[in-house]
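Run log, item B.
One chain of 456 residues. Sequence copied directly from the ordering sheet:
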Amino acid sequence: MTVVELAPPRPPVRRRAEGDGPPGGGASRRPNVLIATLLGAGILVVCLTEFRPVGLIPGNLSDTLFLTALALSGIGWLFGLNGSKLRAFMDGAREVSHFLWGGLALSLGGAIASLGSAAPAVSWGVTLKYFVTFCLWLPWMAFAAGRVLSLTRMHGLYLLALGFASAATMSDVLLRTRFGIWLVSGDKRIVLDVIRSGRYGGPLGHPNTLGYVTALGFGLCLHYAISAPKRVQRLAAVVGLVLHAAAVLVSGSRSALITMAVAWLIVTALAPRRMTGRLLGLPILCVLAVWGISTAPLIQAVLPVNPAARLAASVSSNTEFRADQSRKADLQAARDLLERDPFTGYGMDNVGTELAPTVGFTLHNTILQSWMAGGLLAAIGAVWLYGATLLLGWRAIRLKHPLAPGLVAAAVGFILMDLVQPHIYARFKWLTAIMLVAAVREAEAVRKRDRTGGAA
């Protein structure tokens, strides 16, 4: 009789769960769950740009949460460093190298400009902030997206964050709540001055920043409304569309309205053919809705402003006539400064986050502003960051990741808005680029797995 020896049963293969962190071994799950929680909380409040409940820590609440997660992750990584982790780190560094190079050029340009700045302490401080944001936070978040926190969950939290900003704004307008006061730390007189001008920034403090959020949220919700797998998710996306469309009227931001139109074009061009008819009818539906609300007596008794009048004012060339004239003068002044010194810059104290620029004005174009403040290197760094984002979007579309159209619409939108806005630093918009990194990674992994399975 032949005796057949049975091999011992193989232990079950444990799939790496969300929160376990990047592969590399040695790390316990609990610290990674903490980091994932901090990341998720940071995303959820990322649009509260003026909310600083902890006065001793620089930055807003999301900055505090993100940087705490970054510090804990770095400490844990160093203590558990081994060969596998080092290889994973090098792979991740190659994956986000475009962001690293752009951030380094921006920071190096700022350092050189700080040497000759009229306010060197402020300039060095801003340079450090840009280094932490673009050389540490942005690459690390791109590495963590999909590893520490799943892309699906990150995308959902981001939609909630954008939606809350618009919902809180409309609550203030319709229900007379005061989120725009409660969630804006510091001097409230700026908020009141903006309200007197006929515009409102909600919990973001400034109407142009609110316009940013509504434009990003509109593109993401538009795509999610036609692609989400569950009816409840699609309905939530439609609610988000309504909130963002209403909030952009309150903000009075023309650049946000134009960006919404561009987002609609991108999503329509990339949508399945069966959805094209509905998307083409969306602008007509929006116009009819605004007209209906504007002419209904009962609704007019509740609304503080006429939506049709607000829309007409938003697209009118006279809405910000004084501001437009001022910005044209600023562009001419910037041209004169760059002709005088196109290489070294005049100091990072002249970027949009500073209230008292030493050149005397705030330039509303992030590329030209980076050039004027940090010199040619900083301008190259800014263009590099935008180019890397667009390249990632193109790759995500070619790889047919399901979230790509909405993320690309948002990314193209914030880059367009940056051409007429002063803030390259805002973290809430760079989350779209971060999620594009994770989307490309996921899509490439699926393609590789399919090829391997096919070969087998």
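Observations after the first pass:
- Residues 72 and 371 are 34 Å apart (CA to CA).
- The chain has 18 helices and no strands.
Flagged for discussion on Thursday.
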